[in-house]
Design a protein that fits this description.
With 90 residues, the protein is mainly α. It is 72% helix and 0% strand. The protein is built from 3 helices and no strands. Helix 1 runs parallel beside helix 3 and helix 2 packs antiparallel against helix 3. The radius of gyration is 15 Å and the shape is elongated. The termini are far apart.
Amino acid sequence: MTGHLAHPYAAAVADGLFSLATLPQPLASEIDRYERAILALQAAHDALDWPLFTDAPLAAMQATFCDDNIGELVQAVRDLHARYSATTGH
């Protein structure tokens, strides 16, 4: 098991996209839920990253799906920030 953080999520964390302190509560709650979903997908990816699965190609494919979905959720958070910035000027 690698225990790696998917690159898009790690980059988003480094960019501060999951820092909720200055956001309005509804937006912060939405981003928090996205982050919880991302962490659950990360846990699924890590569980699938085990070399002894009988059907290793299936496990690898499902782990890839987890990474892809993490990337899509990170993009959703980026889009939320962009919309918030466009409406507030922040």
